[in-house]
Write a structure and sequence with these properties.
Blueprint: H1 9-23, H2 30-37, H3 41-48, H4 51-74, H5 80-96, H6 105-114, H7 118-144, H8 154-174, H9 178-193
Helix pairs in contact: 1-2, 1-4, 1-6, 4-5, 4-7, 5-7, 5-8, 5-9, 6-7, 7-8, 8-9
Amino acid sequence: MARPREFEHDAVLDRAMRIFWSRGYEATSVQNLVDHMGIQRGSLYATFGDKRALFFAAIDRYDRMVTAKLLAALNEPASGTEAIRQFFRLKIEWAVAANRPRGCLVTNSATELASRDRRTAGRVGAVLTKIEAAFQRAVVRAQQAGEIDPARDPRALARFLTSSAQGLSVMTKTFSERAMLEDIVEVILTALKQP
């Protein structure tokens, strides 16, 4: 007879996600994970596999919980420009929140591992591709509403916005002053309106 699970899967996965997010993959030991997740080492392996499998599960959880909220802002039926602004507002709100790890798990993982780990690059790339596609839809809406010059390449603008969002995440690792982050976002939004 199987032993009943003694923990709530998503709750312990959230704790793993937060430690990978705050410390990174390499600096997080299995003991760190066990301590922060509040489960036994055997339960970690039985439920999630090894550290690498748990890391990928944490990225997937981040995508479902955090990225999904950002994409929801971009997919709002409101003005494309306002949707883009709301995306960056959310990033700033999260950056200045005291109870959240700094930066972005996807960006942190890209800078730490993607250049030397194809599986991480694939996972991170899939998330960034979704963000880029959502930005592109918002740019097209903004172009149709006359908010952005329709002659500009919406895919290129979406890539610019995606890279700007990731750059903002890198900045928030060191700086969490709202005024500074808002200045950066204003320049990003102004660049959209320039021919």
